[in-house]
């Protein structure tokens, strides 16, 4: 099916496929009966609620038909990433024409009965969504929230040699910040070992009600824009003023052939250079001689639809964005216009008498997994379980002298970084680390002992850890890093994103969309599980020693816990060993979003590896060694059934330190007080088990936190979150939470907890205040004054000397 001569005969099948997809797209928006128009169109064949997006659909189907031609001719595996995902009817239509839809949804058969189900179900109660959702075969990008298509495409291409990821980008989507950054994804793709991304920008001129910027700037500026981003743009324009579509077919076919040829030359050139030893500047320069292609496809919005409706222009304007004819059931003129529109595609040529696709389309249908709607890459790929090295060699020795002192310290992320290096080494083609220029800042630099940062641009002598085949991808865009990771995960590989806790809010909405995708995908029987998306949030709210208020925000946890319980997990490991065990666990999970918050600064190592395993497995537990329930011998044994006087609970590394210090103050200064220390590493344990699968059963929760004793809870984040999770619990009225209360600045570690009333003295004072009758006992008022004075003196010392006093910095746990 050569296109070199540009003849109409060579592209007849492409045109027929395109017309068939357009017909089915219109049908899905409007029809609920008579899908082949065997009779004159009647109002009762029209849906009562007209939903969907027509304007982008014709161009999406045009690209699909032409990509099919290339796949059939060249046999190159190709994935279709649909940026204008609200063009869902086009993607569903093409999947049905491929035959994939009927294979996955056997009741939507390749005949007239199946067609009736196909058109009726779209945007219909009990049917399918209007976007290219998880229910849409071949989709890894829903496109409900625009901006993520190109970054998903680049993530999908990583470590997929020989794969072409064609990404259609709407010109409205191109105005979003995430998409604008995504053009730089080409700086990380290694043509020797990765696939290729072919961006196809569809300039149809309008968003919902406004023109688009890229459609209005001069063409020379448009070309300069993309050349400046490192691409060689190929321009195609047509379909305006009644132009014969065959002219566009010829132009676009030549453009795609040119783009594929360029991609193959880039691959060949890079792989022929495999024997070169130099991996730095000279080699990089050689490989950037030929720019990767991208296509600018300029077509009318709503192409082939109604030219005008009620005297107002529609085709080629924003009026074509959603439903061009809105009064079809009640307006006979609109009904007649819809029928003319549908019949303009000549359905009698496109479908057999039984409703199956015409045989003329057979030549354009790839075989098996080469169909874009059936691509293995778009359904979890071939997931290889991560090889996880033993964490024991990296564990911190706790209480090596056996005297119960627990005085060892370690930076949790630094310890984890050593194991992460080994994970990278054990999974050289299936694991990547992503982050916005913070891998070293978050103390994970040990990975650079095994790999480097991926980098395809020129280098200079002062650069460090840059290589064309690096497994770490860093760019100062949380959007780009998460989007590439999502594309990588959805196509069956594994990874981790690390960033500063305060700035993960930049991707709040991306988190929401991925969570919704996973939730929806779980209800699609043929969707395979995919590796979990895991965030490691460090440089957290309590230790921003050289930054300040702008870097202090733990609120991402509040965003996360509102998602469906089957999808999200939140972990607050308290030290290096619990972080190791936690990460070992989350790397084994599927179809989850795991949020892990851990500090990078030196902190006490509280638990041995064995203790950490038990604690992480349970998700929370009593730390009897830190409390006083064992101090009284057998009569006061922690299993005696006698409740403590107070529960000191904590979640997070810094709150845990302050809690244990508070317990020590109380043990030393208020003898006989029964104190229980409870640490929570799995935040969802606090929630009712009916609300989250990790929720602790009520009887176990009551046994741990008591039914009526005061609970002083030192929490890493905003206090209200603990109340939100635990409000159904028996003793909720006695839970008093200390956490971040939006007080921050550049200050010392202790002054930071002091500012937010989370320090050890405040927690101990809360105990005096909350235990009935304790505050009035002899000596308690004097003790309270002493602790208030200690807080004041600690602040005064820090403000004079620039550091916390020695009685804070030199504090060690004592039994």
UniProtKB/TrEMBL annotation:
<dbReference type="InterPro" id="IPR019789">
    <property type="entry name" value="Xul5P/Fru6P_PKetolase_ThDP_BS"/>
</dbReference>
<dbReference type="GO" id="GO:0000287">
    <property type="term" value="F:magnesium ion binding"/>
</dbReference>
<dbReference type="GO" id="GO:0005975">
    <property type="term" value="P:carbohydrate metabolic process"/>
</dbReference>
<feature type="domain" description="Xylulose 5-phosphate/Fructose 6-phosphate phosphoketolase N-terminal">
    <location>
        <begin position="9"/>
        <end position="382"/>
    </location>
</feature>
<protein>
    <submittedName>
        <fullName>Phosphoketolase family protein</fullName>
    </submittedName>
</protein>
<dbReference type="InterPro" id="IPR019790">
    <property type="entry name" value="Xul5P/Fru6P_PKetolase_CS"/>
</dbReference>
<dbReference type="InterPro" id="IPR018970">
    <property type="entry name" value="Xul5P/Fru6P_PKetolase_N"/>
</dbReference>
<dbReference type="GO" id="GO:0016832">
    <property type="term" value="F:aldehyde-lyase activity"/>
</dbReference>
<comment type="similarity">
    <text>Belongs to the XFP family.</text>
</comment>
<keyword id="KW-0786">Thiamine pyrophosphate</keyword>
<dbReference type="InterPro" id="IPR009014">
    <property type="entry name" value="Transketo_C/PFOR_II"/>
</dbReference>
<keyword id="KW-0456">Lyase</keyword>
<dbReference type="Pfam" id="PF09363">
    <property type="entry name" value="XFP_C"/>
</dbReference>
<dbReference type="Pfam" id="PF09364">
    <property type="entry name" value="XFP_N"/>
</dbReference>
<feature type="domain" description="Xylulose 5-phosphate/Fructose 6-phosphate phosphoketolase C-terminal">
    <location>
        <begin position="600"/>
        <end position="812"/>
    </location>
</feature>
<dbReference type="InterPro" id="IPR018969">
    <property type="entry name" value="Xul5P/Fru6P_PKetolase_C"/>
</dbReference>
<dbReference type="InterPro" id="IPR029061">
    <property type="entry name" value="THDP-binding"/>
</dbReference>
<dbReference type="Pfam" id="PF03894">
    <property type="entry name" value="XFP"/>
</dbReference>
<dbReference type="InterPro" id="IPR005593">
    <property type="entry name" value="Xul5P/Fru6P_PKetolase"/>
</dbReference>
